[in-house]
Amino acid sequence: MLIAFIRHGQTDWNREGLLQGSSDIPLNDTGREQAHDAFMTLRSRPWDVVVSSPLQRARETAQIIADGLDIPLGRAYPELIERDYGPLEGTSAAAAIERWPAREYPGAESLESVARRGEAALAAIVADIRDGAVLVVCHGTIIRYTLARLAGRPVPGIDNGSISMLRFEDGAWQVATVNGIPLEEIPIEHAARQPSREGEAPVSRS
């Protein structure tokens, strides 16, 4: 089974560098362009279905991609919702990271919980779909820490609209790419040092 994780397109909170988390913030026009860019990249191979987080920024990104590829928009999985940042949602991501560099923010969901939810979401998707090529649209922190857990090593922050690939073979997940870059080409030291993209102004990828 082939999975492509896609981070939703940009929102105004992304642009302004605010922690977004479980707050249901819509895409902006740049985010819709990033969703369009993503499906243009993805059309080089066949895909069976798009699923997503239920938050509107992910769901709209998934709908744009489904329409562009002429494939079904599947269900929304609550396990794919972004990390809950609690009372810090809507505040400066850079300030939060400076104060709590390990990203264990007071009142926020733990990163361990986020990674476990990501694994649970993948298990649910495999149980529902069983085989094929599936696009999974969700959020930067859950993608990053799920991939890191599966790969057994740090991975870099996830760009808006970027595509990260993994396969489920012989009962195990294998991470192939992160942000479109082969995992083996990403130095572990670089990935560990790279700031989170939780609320930073994102890089548009085509």
CATH class: Alpha Beta
Q: Report the biggest beta sheet as strand number plus sense, adding barrel if it closes.
A: 6 strands, mixed
Give, in order, the helices and strands.
EHHEHEHHEHEEEEH
Fourth-level CATH superfamily: Phosphoglycerate mutase-like
Which structural class fits the helix and strand makeup? Answer: alpha/beta
Averaged pLDDT: 92
Number of strands: 8
Give a description of the structure.
By secondary structure, the chain is of the alpha/beta class. About 35% of the residues lie in helices and about 15% in strands. The strands form 2 sheets. The protein has a 6-stranded mixed sheet with strand order 3-2-4-1-5-6, sandwiched between helices. Strand 7 and strand 8 form a beta hairpin. Helix 2 (about 30-40) crosses helix 3 and helix 5 (about 110-130) packs across helix 6.
Briefly characterize the structure.
This protein is an alpha/beta fold and 206 residues long. The chain is built from seven helices and eight strands, in the order E-H-H-E-H-E-H-H-E-H-E-E-E-E-H.
Which tags fit this structure?
7 helices; Fructose 1,6-bisphosphatase; 206 residues; 17% strand; alpha/beta; disordered C terminus; Rossmann fold; phosphatase activity; 8 strands; six-stranded mixed β-sheet
Which helices and strands appear, and what pairs or packs with what?
Blueprint: E1 2-7, H1 12-16, H2 29-42, E2 49-52, H3 56-69, E3 73-76, H4 93-99, H5 111-129, E4 133-138, H6 140-151, E5 163-169, E6 172-175, E7 177-178, E8 181-182, H7 188-193
Parallel strand pairs: 1-4, 2-3, 2-4
Antiparallel strand pairs: 1-5, 5-6, 7-8
Helix pairs in contact: 2-3, 5-6
